[in-house]
Amino acid sequence: MAIESSCDDTSAAVLCNDKVLSNVVANQGIHSAYGGVVPELASRAHQQNIIPVVQQAIQRANIDKNQLKAIAFTRGPGLMGSLLVGTSFAKSFAQGLNIPLIPVNHMQAHILAHFINDETQKKPPFPFICLTISGGHTQIVKIASYFDMEILGETLDDAAGEAFDKSAKILGLPYPGGPLIDQYAKLGNPNAYPFTKPRVGPLSFSFSGLKTGILRFIQKNVQQNPNFIKENRNDICASIQHTIVQILMDKLKNAVKQTDIKHIAIAGGVSANSEIRKVLTESQDKYGWTTYIPTFAYTTDNAAMIGITGYLSYIQNNYSEINNVATARLKVSE
Questions:
Q1: Which of 171, 156, 155, 189 lies closest to 270 in space, CA to CA?
Q2: 3-class DSSP state for residue 21?
Q3: pLDDT, tens digit, for every residue of 105-125?
Q4: How many other C-beta atoms can be found within 10 angstroms of the C-beta atom of residue 210?
Q5: pLDDT at 242
Q6: What's the CA gap between 309 and 241, in Å, rounded?
Q7: Which end of the chain has less Cβ packing within 10 Å, N or C?
Q8: If DSSP codes are grouped into helix, strand and coil, which group holds residue 241?
Q9: How many structural domains does the chain have?
Q10: Nearest CA to 266 among 257, 185, 279?
Q11: Would the pLDDT of 32 be above 90?
């Protein structure tokens, strides 16, 4: 069994080896009223959700809890209060069943979701490059084996997911705004409004300047025309999305050139974005890459990805002591 509670989604999954038997996710709608995740509210919601979510995962998997062989849980990174709820429950559950406890690095799990036995996705061979893009992280990682990961480049400030969500907030869209930008962008012209790309190192990312540029652009045009956003929403969203995706692709091209690795995967919540999936698929013919795009259900935070990572640790007898603690900060290489 796997438990995920790093941010605002409470999730539990049951796996038989690398096959997912159940994957239950409880979302927290309470944060939409605040325009973002409120850590204290998130941890309280996890406390309310975790027992029914775990129970539902066991029922959907059609097993008895005594059949479980190990408990995997998200150790970090994430919100400390949220992590503590999942960690405490996992420890108690493992002790009660007298089975091994397996800590999982949330960022590694996003990448290793590619190795879930699912006919809708293919497994990348080693070595491969993975672009991990989420609300809190934007990284290019070289994966030599399941647990041998090296960060080649990462964001110097904000993450791509935050750039999507903050841009949506500027446009007056509700939280989470990233999926809404994706939705409206499909109806707009991606070249309507050019935004300046940040000038940083070849494998580094920066999105704080882009967010500021978008804010000033909107403020200036709304001052001239109060209905500017309403009249041009689709084009604005398409232009923002196009700029972010092009930044990501530029860095990926640099990584391929530097490493000569042409097996490219994406992972993390933003990998659900339709434009990045489309552009990455097109890169196979355009650049001769072989690309690996995870099944939609395994992109956002979910326990199935924790489960596959736990399974890969389990077969290596990589267990944890009961005093293992959650940590809010944890690099993908740790």
A1: 155
A2: strand
A3: 999 999 999 999 999 999 999
A4: 23
A5: 98
A6: 31
A7: C
A8: helix
A9: 2
A10: 279
A11: no
The reply to whether 159 and 40 lie within a common domain is no
* Mean per-residue pLDDT over the chain, rounded: 94
102 plus 130 within the same structural domain: no
pTM exceeds 0.85: yes
Domain containing 205: what range?
122-293
CB 113 within 8 A of CB 249: no
* Torsion sign over Cα 317, 321, 326, 329: negative
48 Cβ neighbours under 8 A, 6+ residues apart = none
**For residue 34, pLDDT beyond 70:** no
Distance, CA of 55 to CA of 42 (rounded, Å): 20
Contact 88, 49 (CB under 8 A): no
The CATH number assigned to the domain holding 192 equals 3.30.420.40
**Mean pLDDT, rounded, for 263-274:** 95
Q: Same domain for 101 and 228?
A: no
Same domain? 246 vs 146? yes
Return the structure tokens found at 322. 């009961």
pLDDT at 167: 96
Per-residue model confidence (pLDDT) at position 30: 66
3 CA to centre of own chain: 16
> Does position 322 have pLDDT exceeding 80, yes or no?
no
Is the same domain home to 278 and 146? yes
What is the pLDDT, as a whole number, of residue 3?
98
Average pLDDT over residues 214-241: 97
- 278 and 166 part of one domain: yes
Cα(10)–Cα(206) distance, integer angstroms: 30
Domain match, 78 and 147 both: no
Under 8 Å between Cβ of 196 and 67: no
How are beta strands 2-4 and 71-76 bridged, if at all?
Answer: parallel
Distances 176 to 61, 78, 166, 169 between C-alpha atoms, Å? 30, 18, 9, 9
